[in-house]
Amino acid sequence: MPSFKTRALSALRTVAxxxxxxxxxxxxxxxxxxxxxxxxxxxxQGDAFTPITSIPEFASRxxxxxxxxxxxxxxxxxxxxxxNGPIMAAALLAGGxxxxxxxxxxxxxxxxxxxxxxxxxxxxxxxxxxTTIAVEFxxxxxxxxxxxxxxxxxxxxxxxxxxxxRFRAALASADLVALVNWTMxxxxxxxFTELVEQVLPALPARAPGLPARLFFFDLADPEKxxxxxxxxxxxxxxxxxxxxxxxxxxxxxEAQQVAEVLALPCPDKDEASLxxxxxAIRGKLGIATVVVHPRxxxxxxxxxxxxxxxxxxxxxxxxxxxxxxxFNGGFSQGQxxxxxxxxxxxxxxxxxxxxxxxxxxxxxANIETFLATWS
Length: 375
Fold this sequence. Notes:
By secondary structure, the protein is an alpha/beta fold. The chain has one domain (4-35, 80-373): UDP-N-acetylmuramoyl-L-alanine:D-glutamate ligase. 39% of the residues lie in helices and 23% in strands.
């Protein structure tokens, strides 16, 4: 029997040419990410230092400052486009999908890190971007954010900047609507409520012959939000099912948080647990698809059952910030192209795998090459 990689490669080659006909509306955040390495011991200027390589080592350094003080140096590696929405959109854009992006990309002008992105997509900027210092370790990362500009993002703000008619037209024409980073946008639940109660019911029906509109949601680490807020937004997300097929994308930590608030068993990262968690969350919410993707593998559940694949994990990535958003972009690209759940997982894993090794969002041709050479 062909492997999941062979099946995905064959399916992708059959449908890849349809990508430019697909359109996505994505939002609503926007960040400038500064990727840094924490310094353990410096021996000279520049990059002549030994890094702090693990989160426990970093935690020990911080804990040692209690009652005293300490100086932690972050060595900057790069400034880059950031935010769950822009990174996911960049992944889809590289795959050939037409993008309309609504979010916090700069005010009064687009921030320089988004200039290349804005030259290839239709952009509506609502506010200045938030900022993140992304501290990367071998066993994870810490995202240190300043988010105040995201407080201004509301549906009235979108309609003021974009125009209500233009926003509704973009929604109506989108094959995929991805609304991500609920955790960091304080008014996102209110936006969801207004969309399902006021905006989406007034949109024209999809043209005959077109597949159902896809909705994709990524919570973005809801640890700092209350249990009530998380429970509320999960059921708000489920209400979008009246207007299309809903996918909830979760990393392992998010899946554990969601399972806990829904009174479901807490998943671990083994295959059986991931399949069971995806199915249980999907069943509890009554949505089309739930995806759970730890670093080493990925699983999803649909009405047809569950799927799981191992991931192309590397212990020496060039970059990890944005890996999950690239997975989301690749998975959604597969859905847009009509691939089966296993192949959607494979596209997600390959999109993320290519990105963490190169720092570049892959084209579908890059993904074909990655699939063909993935050992």
